[in-house]
Amino acid sequence: MSETPPFEIPPQMREMAERNVEQARQAYAQFLDMARKAQDMMTRSSGAMADGAREVQGKAMRYAQENLESSFSFATELARARDAREAMEIQSRYAQKQMRIYAEQSQELARLMSDAAQRMQPKP
């Protein structure tokens, strides 16, 4: 019984995938710069914005940036996969890592929102 050789992703296809990831990364950097400028304008124009709300907003922006950077790293690593087995291993590691990170991030945001709500309560 002959064994079927593993499917290998051609180098040209991997190179094209890497170029596409880099183009997406550049577009993301432009978007992030615009989002930061909009956030800065909002913060300056809204002097009454509570410190807690600003803290939550800043943390959410940092998490979004970290998560997108992680996604780009994942896409780059995946584009370099030589075969389907390696691609599945990369995907599995990424999914496990991100699930842990998302859980930690959601807990931190919930804590910050709770703290902000408590600070906004009128003092007796």
Shape: elongated
Query: Whole-Å distance between the termini?
Result: 82 Å
Largest sheet: none
Mean pLDDT: 80
Number of helices: 3
Level of helix content? over 70%
Structural classification: mainly alpha
Which regions have little confidence, pLDDT < 50, spanning 5+ residues?
none
Radius of gyration equals 21 Å
- The number of strands is 0
Q: How would you summarize this macromolecular structure in one to three sentences?
A:
With 124 residues, the chain is mainly alpha-helical. The protein has helices spanning 11-45, 51-79, 84-120.
Report what the structure shows.
This protein has one domain. It contains three helices and no strands. It has helices at residues 11-45, 51-79, 84-120. Helix 1 (11-45) runs antiparallel to helix 2 and helix 2 (51-79) runs antiparallel to helix 3. The protein is elongated.
List keywords for this structure.
elongated; 124 residues; mainly alpha; single chain; 3 helices
List the helices and strands and how they pair.
Layout: H1 11-45, H2 51-79, H3 84-120
